Description:
The protein is of the alpha/beta class. The chain starts with a helix and ends with a helix.
Amino acid sequence: MRSKKAEMDVEYNVEDEIVSSDDDTMSVDSEFSTASTVKTPRTVSRLKKETTLSRTPSVSSAKKPKASLSRRSTFSAVKSTPSMQKRAASKIDQTSDALSLYEKARIKLHVANTPDCLPCRDKQFSDIYNFIETNLRNQTGGCMYVCGVPGTGKTLTTRQVILCLKEGVNDKILSPFKSIEVNAFQVTEPHQIYKLIYKELTGENVSAEHAVTLLEKKFEHKSNESIVLLVDELDMLCTKKQDVLYNLFDWPYKKNSRWIVIAIANAMNLPEQVMSKISSRLGLSRLIFQPYTHVELEEIVRLRLEELNVFDMDAILYAARKVAAVSGDARRALEICRRATELAERDTSKKEGKSLNLVNIGHVDQAVKQMFSSAKITLLTHASKMEKLFMKAIILLYQKSGMEETSLNRIIETHNFLCRAENMQPLNRTQLLNVCCSLASTKLILLEPCKNIYLQRVRCNMSVDDIEYVLNDNK
Ligand SMILES: Nc1ncnc2c1ncn2[C@@H]1O[C@H](COP(=O)(O)OP(=O)(O)O)[C@@H](O)[C@H]1O
Ligand SMILES: [Mg+2]
């Protein structure tokens, strides 16, 4: 499960390999570091909406005392450091002449390229920012559960908030705090996350059991520093007892705690379905990232391509609509546009005179076809054994009943049967629920929510032929 999830993430790299031209990797990497100068969403949307760059009085830093801890005053202080500016300028000088417009567009569209700004996430940015800032100011602990399907900007937004708060610290309008980021993909077993957190906190390597004891000890005395802990891919830390999740959510509420935990998950219903003991504590501190709409996806792509006259605007809208209809995943929209750019570049290089071809709807359509047809096969090929058996169980039930939909309960029974047939230890229900959520998060299956989670309807979202092709290929 865990290794597969890591592979799922790698899926995007795999596809990148498929869609990238051989020679662009170097230039992409070298350009990434130039993008570290981020603008807050508020600033960006203002820049976009207003034709002038002037700020409204309410956000003018001149009107707020410099030492104020208010969020807006902190926002106004966000700027790139001199070293960042120098680095960025020299990188741009080196590359701007040498790169074609297409290459620049491809670099800008790469998912690993931190965007110059964060459009469409203004509210989420504010919510996370205010949550952390309030706890920092009050010297209290707190926990926020951030959820939503992959590619909706959860990690990016949270990282950007922390970056913004750090700028506030540099400008001496916020007290210093320590920030730690851990990703559950990094560990092979949920309890190992303690080891990782302790290592990030102190630099020391200790066993997972020792780490949890040492961490618990820290709450016996009032600390003089707040700790912002970002735990990404929380779904991977589910255990039968849910003790890891329980601790992560409990630590911020210990008497002396100044831990501010931002827990990011794909599943919306982890608190209700799995963490009933603590869900009441989460209270209002829950934030959902909805899939992007086509309007938002269009804006995300358009802003990355600003000043590069290389795309037909209708082509961007077309890509945005295609993605919004399936997943609302920003990564997908960016990848399609990147692939379409390559196709346009190829057309141009074949043309006499080599005048620039704008990337048009035809290129996007071709890119969509290439990517959607292969993406699911790639995903399933890299899925874990248990996920493949889950898909096999769905096919078996389909072949038996002729019904495209079935209940999770029935799949669990069939999955156990298949495990035994293959001499494998069957998974328990919680583990299978994780497998199910993970397949749903990558849209290989579709779920129809139901109050009783085990009665929810499950439907395959790829053709039986494709599934069998992958399963037989891997025998
Ligand atoms: N609002 C946005 N603006 C620009 N790019 C975005 C935005 N949201 C997502 N992306 C792109 O999609 C990628 C995936 O976003 P990420 O935050 O990792 O999603 P999640 O954590 O929800 O799976 C980012 O690295 C970025 O390239
Ligand atoms: Mg993420």
